[in-house]
Design brief:
By secondary structure, the protein is of the alpha+beta class. It has one domain. The protein contains four helices and eight strands. It has a four-stranded antiparallel β-sheet with strand order 2-1-3-7, with helices on one face. A four-stranded antiparallel β-sheet has the order 4-6-5-8, with helices on one face. It is globular and about 45 Å long. It starts with 14 loop residues before the first strand and ends in a 5-residue tail after the last strand. About 3% of the residues have low confidence.
Length: 223
């Protein structure tokens, strides 16, 4: 059964994210859709998030390499809406639940295996990648799990806690947990953005300075 009752069967509906082409303050957004899991999802993550020159600048400052990558959010915005809590919750449609793992005192490989083991134990689909700043003993990952139906932010909260518990049971140290519940932790507000996997542009690998992410996923029923 799906965790998101009432839902008689776990299907594979069309997933979406709101896709930001420039920096996180950009209003240039559009919807991106995933019709086939995991193929379409992986294709979008691998082709849409190649970062340009990490020395790129705006008028005011140099951009960190990860800021050159597009950003995503697991919700739909209303037409012409702004990326703010009010507009996000006016639409209140989420197709994926995000889990943000920061500064886990593990190697990157060990953290990746713990994430995978947790979802294998649950037999639920997911995709994950290490962040640009991820390092051994400072493992940071983005994890997205698709939902079996469009869901409200309020419905995501117990699912978020369910997945956090599953990750801890699989071996994720408690020290890596985000502080607080999604409704009070500013890093888990409904209007938050997540940078897509950032990769160096061809010829700039030697000056990259960050980790080149490796995607990991599981093709299984949705939550």
């Amino acid at each position: 059964m799906s965790l998101l009752a009432p839902s008689a069967d776990i299907g594979k509906p069309r997933l979406w994210w709101t896709y930001f082409q420039r920096m996180e303050r950009s209003r240039d957004w559009r919807a991106r859709f995933v019709d086939r899991w995991p193929d379409d999802m992986l294709a979008l993550l691998q082709t849409a998030a190649i970062a340009p020159d990490p020395k790129r600048r705006t008028r005011k400052r140099a951009l960190r390499p990860k800021e050159c990558a597009p950003a995503m959010a697991p919700y739909l915005l209303p037409h012409g809406g702004k990326r703010c809590k009010v507009d996000v919750l006016t639409r209140n449609e989420f197709s994926m639940v995000p889990i943000d793992i920061d500064a886990a005192p593990l190697s990157v490989v060990a953290a990746r295996e713990i994430i995978h083991a947790a979802f294998v134990n649950l037999n639920r689909a997911y995709v994950s990648w290490p962040t640009w700043s991820s390092r051994d003993n400072y493992a940071s990952f983005r994890v997205f799990a698709p939902l079996s139906r469009p869901s409200t932010f309020a419905e995501l909260i117990p699912v978020w806690w369910f997945l956090r518990r599953a990750l801890h049971e699989a071996g994720l140290p408690a020290a890596s947990a985000k502080v607080g519940e999604p409704t009070v932790d500013p890093r888990l507000q409904p209007s938050r953005l997540y940078y897509l996997p950032a990769r160096p542009a061809p010829g700039l690998e030697s000056s990259w300075g960050g980790i080149t992410p490796e995607l990991r996923w599981l093709d299984a029923p949705y939550l």
